[in-house]
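Below is how a single chain appears once it has passed through the pipeline. First comes the sequence as given, then the structure the pipeline wrote out for it. We keep one example in the README because the format questions we get most often are answered faster by looking than by reading.
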Amino acid sequence: MTIQTFLIALSSVALILFVAFIASRLLRSRAAGLSIRMQIFLALAAIVGAFAFGVGVLVIDRVKARATLLAEESARSEATAIAALVSNEMEVRGRSLDDVGRDLVALKGEIALSLFAPDGRSVLEAGKSPGDPGVVSVTVPITANGEQVGTVRVVKATLVIQLMLADFAPTILTISVVLGVAAAIAAALIGGTIAAPIEKLTVFAVRVSEGQLLSRSPPVHGREVTELANALETMRRELEGRPFVETFAADLSHELKNPVAAIRASAEVLSDGALDDPTEAPRFVARIQEATTRIEALLGELLSLAKIEARGVTESERVELAAIVREAAARVRERGGKVELSLLSGSFSVRGDALWLARLVDNLIDNAIEHGEPDAPTRIALRQTKDQVAITVTNRGAVAEHVRKRLFRRFVTTRAARGGTGLGLAIARAVAEAHGGAISCSSFGPPDVVFTLTLPVVA
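Resulting structure:
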């Protein structure tokens, strides 16, 4: 295989793969729409493609013109030489045009040669005719003793054009592939510069819509994007005001509806005579006690959440997070739970309120135990990077699809029947953000549900 053939094959395969990739992305965009990166790429690809096509057409046109000119000059030189030879034979030796034509028959295998008498009669015809494709022809008059005694025509095949175009084909194909790749890289860089801040702001807006009102808009650059970030930040501040209070009140009334209704129904039954029934009275009294316990738990959790969100961390000190995790794991084991603790390298020192951090860790572990499989242990791992301490809490199970996007919002629970208030993870998120950290569910399962807490490390 020659280098030329190899280049053609390699460029062709690259071009096919490139076109297939673009086609697949376009098909995917039918549902979600074209991304900014793809729009920029298509614009650049159209510009670069038009430029490459124009350059290619120009090059091919110039090559054809140059090759045709060379073929005509070669044919003219040969025709002029043969005309001079015929003229010399007729003038010096007194031979006729027909006699000289018979002598030139020997050249018909090498040159596409034709001789014609002054009246147009063909004396000699050999080789291709001017009407054949891919040829050029030149006709030169034959003069003897000052008179035109005939014409000679030489036909040249323009094979050199085909050879030159064949030589240019791999080069043009390679250039096209290189320009396409350059357009893709340029589109990725330009699209990334434009799309990256928009994607960050989108994530920020989603977090705010999920109730993470303590989030701050990411730093961005550029006048238009900065104006968008300021608008989103203003929206977030507005949500912390009256509209948020209205939503909070609506959620709270919804959560209190069931226990209040249970208390009212039980009281009515007791007032209707069940109070004197030794069998029914204890059952309805127990229902009232259960409902009041749920209300007390709900109000206590709400007060805790309001306190950490309103005041933040009031007492900050150096806290050893490993000790807090060990104590939380010990409390779980005392209740009969299964916990596996893994401490990787690091000091695990953070700055904050030890009581709130203990509450945060307890909420994460309790949530894992309540939602995990009963016989599977809860795995807790600590690790430290250059500037962060990370805690991962893992349990066997899965988070229901309908609560995944609202997992850290108030009153979102899948175990209300077992006394869940739906505030545990909301409090955990608020505590983490008050300490400059973040909490997320990095895996919804199955087989494992993984919560990840990150806090800034203390040097």
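The longest helix spans residues 36-92.

See the next section for the split statistics.
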